[in-house]
Amino acid sequence: MYTFSETGNETEGDCSTTVETSCFACGRENPVGLHITYRVVEPGSVRADWHPSSEYTGFDGVIHGGVVTTALDEAMAKAIVSTDTKGLTLRAEDEIPSFGSSRN
Predict the structure, then answer these.
(1) pLDDT at 104 (0 to 100)
(2) Which of 40, 42, 70, 97 to pair with 89, CA 20 to 30 A apart?
(3) Which long-range contacts (CB under 8 A, 24 or more apart) does 52-59 make?
């Protein structure tokens, strides 16, 4: 597990404890934020625990693409910071239904 410092270097801990607590994606103190919990599985690999609510739905119980790309942007940044990587590869496996959607 990692926590990210102001200089972008990782230290031991949980990467959900970030310098910026008002971050829209992962900030715990942002009242309208996504409150996503990210964890570094290994340097360059990040997982997220997230159960998006229906407020972020685009249509028919599916999370809006802009919200999904915000979540991915934050994950990519944390993955890059956790290693010396200059680039990344993204694999999307399926659409992301809203929590409580009939598509779950």
Answers:
(1) 45
(2) 97
(3) 52/96, 52/98, 52/99, 53/98, 53/99, 53/100, 54/98, 54/99, 54/100, 54/101, 56/98, 57/98, 57/101
